[in-house]
TrEMBL record:
GO molecular function: transaminase activity
Name of the protein in its database record: D-amino acid aminotransferase
Organism field: Dechloromonas hankyongensis
Top-level taxonomic group: Bacteria
Presence of the UniProt keyword Electron transport in the record: no
PANTHER family (alphabetical): AMINO-ACID AMINOTRANSFERASE, D-ALANINE AMINOTRANSFERASE
Similarity field: Belongs to the class-IV pyridoxal-phosphate-dependent aminotransferase family.
SUPFAM superfamilies: D-aminoacid aminotransferase-like PLP-dependent enzymes (SSF56752)
């Protein structure tokens, strides 16, 4: 299956970039992950808007217009063998002929890369049981609202979870739970869905927005406010959400059950609404 690199579609094995690429040297780049259902990209406009917002946030020009990105994504979707896909986009500040932290001259073109992989949905048996998570200190920088490829703190947090047989690490900063290593986190308490607010310390998830829309459309009690670590542990339900995981119940936290230790009814309802909505 061909991948997209700097204006061309070519086999992955032939897609090469310079070892001086600033994505490689500095993690100086941005990315997006777009889910595709039955060969239709889900919420692509919103993903491309977030890509633009992240590029603006790090003063990088977008190498492609929204229309051009749409065409790239469409072509990847058409040529991939899978109906349900995950499209990955990445833009870096390109490769200069010398290493310097400051931006390269304007003559250096950015690197733009995109490829498709199969969207692996969570097996029903895993969803029925829920997954385990741990809490870890949030060691990231202060612009977590930008979807940048400098992901070392997220990588180390997720690896710590996996090493303990868990699916996700929940990031705690100043006593507040911000999000997961690669997901947004919601809690339910006494029938109220609670979502952390969009600040510089959380990625504004596209799935997060869909869930707030669905809760509102179904007239569910909803609170968007900070969640303390104490509230997190006392929640009736905890969910992780992302473009690839959709909505997944966290039923164990640091070895202790959340609620009765089983996925709750609200999460199952929201998962069903999401299935109906995405198709
Ligand atoms: N991660 N928070 C973080 C830190 C994330 O990395 C992600 C997504 C989310 C959820 O955002 P969305 O609903 O737009 O997927 C929240 C992607 C899937 C990834 O890094 O692979």
């Amino acid at each position: 299956d061909p991948v997209y690199l700097n204006g061309r579609f070519l086999p992955l094995a032939e897609a090469g970039i310079s070892p001086l690429d600033r994505g490689f040297l500095y993690g100086d780049g941005v990315y997006e992950v777009i889910p595709v259902y039955s060969r239709r990209a889900f919420r692509i406009d919103e993903h491309l808007q977030r890509l633009q917002a992240t590029l603006d946030g790090i003063q990088m020009a977008n190498p492609l217009s929204a229309e051009a990105w749409q065409a790239v994504v469409l072509k990847l979707i058409e040529t991939a063998p899978w109906d349900d896909q995950s499209i990955y986009l990445q833009v870096t500040r390109g490769a200069d002929d010398k290493r310097d932290h400051a931006f390269p001259p304007a003559s250096v073109p950015p690197t733009a890369f995109a490829f498709s992989s199969p969207l692996v949905t969570t097996p029903a048996a895993v969803r029925a049981k829920g997954v385990a998570a741990i809490t870890v200190p949030d060691l990231r920088w202060s612009r977590c609202d930008l979807k940048v490829v400098s992901l070392l703190a997220n990588v180390l947090a997720r690896q710590q979870a996996v090493a303990q047989g868990c699916a996700e690490a929940l990031l705690i900063r100043d006593g507040l739970m911000k999000e997961g290593a690669a997901s947004n986190i919601f809690i339910v308490k006494d029938g109220v869905l609670i979502a952390p607010p969009k600040t510089h310390l959380m990625l504004p998830g596209i799935t997060y927005d869909v869930i707030l829309e669905l809760a509102t459309a179904h007239q569910q009690p909803l609170a968007v406010r900070e969640i303390t670590e104490t509230e997190l542990r006392a929640a009736d339900e905890v969910w992780m959400t992302s473009s690839t995981k959709e909505i997944l119940a966290i039923t164990t936290l640091d070895g202790n059950p959340i609620g009765n230790g089983r996925p709750g009814p609200y999460g199952e309802q929201m998962w069903q609404w999401y299935q109906d909505f995405k198709n």
